Amino acid sequence: MTDTPLSRIRNFAIIAHIDHGKSTLADRLIQATGTIALRDMKEQMLDSMELEKERGITIKAASVRLEYKAQDGLDYVLNLMDTPGHVDFAYEVSRSLAACEGSLLVVDASQGVEAQTLANVYQAIEAGHEIVPVLNKVDLPAAEPDRVKQQIEDVIGLDAEDAVMISAKTGLNIEGVLEALVTRLPAPKGDPGAPLKALLVDSWYDSYLGVIILIRVKDGTIRRGQKIRFMAQGTTHVVDSVGVFRPKMVPVDYLGPGEMGYLNAAIKTVADTNVGDTITDDRTPAAEPLAGFKPSIPVVWCGLYPVDADDFEKLRDSLGKLRLNDSSFHFEAESSAALGFGFRCGFLGLLHLEIIQERLSREFDLDLIATAPSVVYKLELNKGEELELHNPADMPDPTFIQSIQEPWIKATIMVPDEHLGSILTLCTERRGQQVELTYVGNRAMAVYRLPLNEVVFDFYDRLKSVSRGYASFDYAMDGYAEGDLVKISIMVNAEPVDALSFLAHRSQAERRGRSICEKLKELIPRQLFKIPIQAAIGGRVIARETISAMSKDVTAKCYGGDISRKRKLLDKQKEGKKRMRQFGKVEIPQSAFIAALKMDS
Known about the structure:
The chain has 14 helices and 32 strands.
């Protein structure tokens, strides 16, 4: 590596709310330091996935090494981590922050502090970061830098007097950001002579090289040919190559303390590389591993089934490939009487679910049905056993269950004053408990405890519609609490349909049961006999709709004569319908499933 002294290395992350300009600022920093030739420069350099570019969001955190000659005439190495802003990918942010000593907090000068800004700042403060506030979009007519500076001080408690004023789009004052990085952020600490300690920040699969690992070296050095050991896994590997990202991969001789880069050691699967693990030298290992960080836990589960049953193996392979580059995504095989064979998949949130579904249909050309999303419930049985319930269809008989616990979240909602009333009403409808309500200027910040079950369906859409798009929302898991929950089974012609069963709070069971019955009544085609559609809790029916039979005029060919001839034909038809109702099978068309599940989501 270039022998840059530790005092001239800076590792920093860019954190902000969605759309406040993180990736655009990263582009300008790459351009200003001449890391990439102008002809190779393109928008959102660090967002490599097609979906990231299309939706304008960052999903995977990305790293790049910049070299900068400061005003004091010295050369500095700046390692930049661009992080996602969306709540579902907060896990990516926590990993990136663990690898850095400082953060650039980007705030939109026209919108001010939003919910995600707060969540990410608190994560950075917990990670012990020095934070430099940056006000972006100051060239907009709606920009109010002084008001936003005051807001940063009031809400976050950071001194924003010397915040850097920039416009990432036009490149205004990017030099000021680079100088602030060099002068205001601390240099990393580390001992090149100590045993090797490197943090495994991220890993992904490359079809030519195998698994590529993003590392941050804390102590010691790592070089090609060295035999390394993963401390948590206990596995050993020989390093094939080490290098840095500029954003393309550039091999180097070695990486020293305080540096960020990649290593490749012919590892076959990403499952062998636990994110947060410590990498050390096999001959002279470190005494204890680095602190690392908590593994990600899926909070939302749903079933994914191929529309065409022949695509099952293709779906299995595709999920396996996605899992290679996304360690926070989980799946296990399951089957359903109505939908055939499929997989139960775990996600970090609804956006994560949507992204995975979209990638499956785009990259692997799969046509899928997703069942209604559900959360993980904890059941305590009478015998004292504890169970985790991912799928409502697997729920044991209620007589064996002592209590059901559901996950709760702590939600922070920031909203302009005039929409506060409708937001509070929405949270109360969803069984929310108000924790606090504070004001900053004309914006309110409401903190609520909400059951995750109520948020999973359409909470985010409702929040945006009642606030005309002005509310911003962030949440963190807040443990489990016992709830009065019941399983609602849907029966068509007295046959239970497992794919449509769900858990709900007793107070809302009837409303949700009725709405799904009404929907199915419109969706299931009429038969020659009456079809009852029922929603039931255990043996008690709480909602019912009936699809009337198609009528066939059996007396059409019977002209004149005695009325008893017609009566005989009608009685015969009645007997036939009775037998049909007993033995008739109702085929629910695939389209009806998709529509019914969509309705509930």
